[in-house]
Design brief:
CATH architecture: Alpha-Beta Barrel
Organism: Paenibacillus riograndensis
Strand content: 5-15%
Structural class: alpha/beta
Number of domains: 1
CATH class: Alpha Beta
Pfam families: Peptidase_M19 (PF01244)
GO biological process, one term: proteolysis
Radius of gyration: 18 Å
Protein name: Dipeptidase
CATH topology: TIM Barrel
Number of helices: 12
GO molecular function: metallodipeptidase activity
């Protein structure tokens, strides 16, 4: 599937699945209602895309049934016949490093739909979910989100979720998590975690971005930071160009984090875009922008190498079976 092998890309966050659930007639290959399509992935050299299961509570209550619906959308419309291969295991990630092909992964953006039930978490693992973002912006049964004013940490059931993730191999994602929860997780987790779609607060002061201290903690544990293309996370005021994304890359590098940088676009989760980064087909041009300013080895790491090496090291093996 990967047509542009010289510009290989891994993208750690998009919101295609919520659109597919709302409109089952969408054609993932080429539908103009999507930012991320198979054709655009081909054009941009995107060989790995992480698809988030996001349950908006604007229409109805978050439930496990709705999680299952988006997993089914992924199975039938994204990873179906002629689509992406499903990446679940470290062995597959290691294979991807040397033999690139089009693959997709599943993540959960906010555990609200698990309804506080760790058996549902185990079912998600068995059905192929490999990342869990603990919260969206607000509080749920496990922890507080970044826009929850009280800035609380984890609940008792949320701490049990951390422990289960450590034992099962389910990876954790701190984008959207309140700072208190970030620091509690950094103390309690025995495995590194990621921020799938967050930028540097020192460059753009949006509360969804990471402080220097959080970035340094992710660097110290060899986690990953998915630099994102949400305009209001890129530049104060919200109007941004592709060149503005470079300021976040440079700042993270100044803290020693070149080896932790990847990308998490948030395509299909936004309704306005960074100029020059409107969809995954633009990754080819963005790669040329990066290569004009930075060493090739670093750029390859940011585009795909850092993400794939993290997966090859930290995903569970096929022999692992989570236990409750």
């Amino acid at each position: 599937m990967v047509r542009n092998r010289q510009r290989r890309v891994a993208d750690f966050h998009c919101d295609v699945l919520s659109k597919l659930q709302a409109s089952p007639d969408i054609d993932f290959r080429k539908d103009s209602r999507l930012d991320v399509t198979l054709d655009r992935m081909l054009a941009g050299g995107v060989e790995l895309q992480v698809f988030a299961i996001y349950l908006s509570t604007r229409r109805e209550k978050a439930s496990f049934e709705r999680i299952l619906g988006q997993i089914e959308s992924f199975r039938n419309q994204v990873a179906g016949s002629g689509g992406l291969q499903w990446l679940c295991w470290k062995e597959e990630a290691a294979e991807q490093i040397n033999t690139p092909t089009g693959r997709g992964m599943l993540s959960l953006e906010g555990v609200d739909g698990l309804e506080g039930n760790l058996f549902y978490a185990q079912l998600c693992f068995e059905l192929g979910v490999r990342f869990m973002g603990v919260t969206w912006n607000y509080a749920n049964w496990a922890a507080d989100g970044v826009l929850e004013q009280r800035n609380g940490g984890f609940t008792e059931q949320g701490r049990k979720l951390i422990d289960w993730c450590n034992e099962s191999g389910m990876l954790l994602d701190v984008s959207h998590l309140a700072p208190a929860g970030f620091w509690e997780l950094s103390e309690r987790s025995v495995r590194p975690f990621i921020a799938s779609h967050s930028n540097a607060a020192a460059v753009c002061g949006h509360p969804r971005n990471l402080s220097d201290q959080q970035i340094q903690a992710l660097i110290a544990m060899d986690g990953r930071i998915g630099v994102t293309f949400v305009p209001w996370f890129v530049r104060d005021g919200g109007e941004a160009k592709a060149e503005d994304v470079l300021r976040h890359i440079e700042h993270i590098c100044s803290l020693g984090g070149s080896g932790q940088i990847m990308f998490g676009s948030d395509f299909d989760g936004i309704d306005c875009w960074v100029e020059g980064l409107e969809h995954p087909g633009k990754y080819a041009e963005f790669a040329e922008l990066l290569l004009a300013r930075y060493p090739e080895d670093a750029v390859k790491g940011w585009l795909h190498g850092n993400a794939l090496s993290f997966l090859a090291k930290n995903l569970p093996s096929k022999t692992i079976q989570p236990q409750l």
